[in-house]
Amino acid sequence: MKPDSGKVEANQQQAIQMGEQAARDGAHLIVFPELWKTGYHLTKEQFLELAETPAGKTVSLFRELAKKWRTVIVLPFAEKEEDRLYISLAVIENTGELLATYRKSFVWGKEKASFTDGERVYRTIHTSVGNIGVLICYDIEFPEPARLLALQGAELLIVPSVWSFPAESRWDIQLPARALDNTVFLLGVNTVGEGSCGKSKLVAPDGHVLCEAPREETCILLHEIDPSLIGVTRASIPYLADYDQTLLPGGPSREK
């Protein structure tokens, strides 16, 4: 998507149009980028004015659309709780049920002036399209959250983002690296315009990029996922099978 900061109605209409098209094209899972409705380049006061709760109008609308489109939806939004702001997302089942919400746990750079870090707790979410793990943008640059989700059985890591051109090389490195580290699929969904580098991409469990969107154009990126590739990859790259649990904090000691 190409959000226009502060233009919430236009951004929402763009999202609905793209979501409807994706559903018509056969999507069973639809993911929108980070802060797609508000845009990214706003002041704290502007975010406070536009932010909502998980029970607010935006999540409620897309719960109805998930049911109408018969798709699972991962929907980021600016969340307000009293005087605190979070960069959050909702995971909505194709029945319209709100399965989970997640708050970005590592707030990046200038975001710290407006937003608060979410709790650093990572849980795999069971959906009709499989077991997914959700992270937001900067969260994926730390290996531990992705690993914790993979150890809980996540098959697909989903990373809505606003990722900039200066950090483009990291986008191209970190996403395939996290997929390969954990031998899972990974979907990074980025904005275009306003300094974002685009290039939303789906990565296979072996780190191979299966498909990628343009750098500067809006695009519906549609691709099938074959879960059997996880087992095939892990048979030849047994990272998780060989992972030494004694190296985890609190794990059993090597000493005898």
TrEMBL record:
Signal peptide: none annotated. Transmembrane segments: none annotated. InterPro entries: Aliph_Amidase/BUP (IPR050345), C-N_Hydrolase (IPR003010), C-N_Hydrolase_sf (IPR036526), UPF0012_CS (IPR001110). The keyword Hydrolase applies. Residues 1-227 form the CN hydrolase domain. Keywords: Hydrolase. The keyword Transmembrane helix does not apply. Belongs to the carbon-nitrogen hydrolase superfamily. NIT1/NIT2 family. This is Nitrilase. It comes from Brevibacillus choshinensis.
